[in-house]
Amino acid sequence: MAVPAADVKAAQALPLEAVAARRRRFRFLTGGKTVTGLAVIVFFLVIAVIGEWIAPYDPSARSSDLLESPSARHWFGTTHLGQDIFSQVVVGTRSVMLVGLAAGIVATILAVIVGVTSGYLGGTPGEGLSALSNVFLVIPALPLIIIIGSAVPTGGDILVAVIIGFTSWAWGARVLRAQTLSLRGREYVEAARATGESTWRIIFFEILPNLTAVIASSFVGTVIFAVMSEITLAFVGVSGLSNWNWGTILFWAQSQQALAQGAWWWFVPAGLAIAILGTALSLLNFGIDEFVSPRLRGSGKARVKGADGRTHRMRVGFTPVLGREEKP
User: Fold this and answer.
1) DSSP secondary structure letter of residue 317
2) pLDDT tens per residue, range 302-312
3) pLDDT of 40-80, one tens digit each?
4) Residue 168: per-residue pLDDT
């Protein structure tokens, strides 16, 4: 029995469409900004896991090498007590990454639950959840963290991460609520509702997949805020100073007037680590934004050919109008 040529072409097109859909799904992983940001973040995660094993010295151990500049024995120099700064930076990476990721996960989960639920349900339940988001939106997070951190000094990194997560979800919930209000009236959602699909199935299989990039961007933004908050708390002396992190290093450098003594190696490595991690998270966030926004995705890459045969390069913010010369 002969198979029609149209059916053969359709069968061959299905795998190609699946491959193309998979490529579109992971397109943001191919951008230079995203790859660079992910590589740096993975590097810091590895250091956070194996930091205590590869640190050449105990970060709290004192020695006779007082306030020495970087050398072969102490790569980042030493403090006024002879403590190895390289070991402090390496060991302190775990606290920074733990607080950032834990707070990001907590805040993102709360933002998704409150934002998507209030946006889809609407009515009294939706307005109540929206009012709850507005209340948490105006709560000053950092002073609250300082008060609770001072009241419970033995809480550690987990307590700080939970406090930051519970006070920084409201903005993401507002964004997700607005996006859900836009999506719940789409044709495919109406079709799923007409076929008798349950509310939770529509949310999980019809709405959430279209909010993946927004959720990821909210998570990255919360991680940036959590990392900066943890370092700020340690720098002002609120969190436990016995647990090393980059803010603790800066705290001791500032309290011992490292800049006045010319001990630049005491605060420069920790400051560079903060700047590099913040840049990596920002690059990842920019990559997600470019994936979400078609205008940013094709920034400076789209080329069109005019009537004169010349190729014109399109730029973000400019809509080229290619005129056609009138023939006499």
Assistant:
1) T
2) 555 555 666 65
3) 999 999 999 998 888 888 888 888 878 888 888 888 888 88
4) 85
Query: Tokens 């495919």 sit at which residue?
Result: 188
Distance CA 209, CA 178 (A): 15
Instruction: Quote the strand ranges of 141-251, DSSP E.
Output: none
78-86 long-range CB contacts below 8 Å, 24 or more apart? 79/252, 79/253, 79/256, 79/266, 80/256, 83/57, 83/59, 84/55, 84/56, 84/57, 84/59, 85/249, 85/265, 85/266, 85/269, 85/270, 86/55, 86/56, 86/269
Instruction: Report the distance separating Cα 149 and Cα 144, nearest Å.
Output: 8
Residue 105 carries which DSSP code? Answer: H
Residue 115: alpha-carbon gap to chain centroid: 18
Cβ(180)–Cβ(195) below 8 Å: no
CA 228 to centroid of chain Cα atoms: 12
Kindly list the structural domains of the chain, giving each domain's residue range(s) and its CATH number in brackets, ordered by start.
Answer: 28-59+74-297 (1.10.3720.10), 300-328 (no CATH)
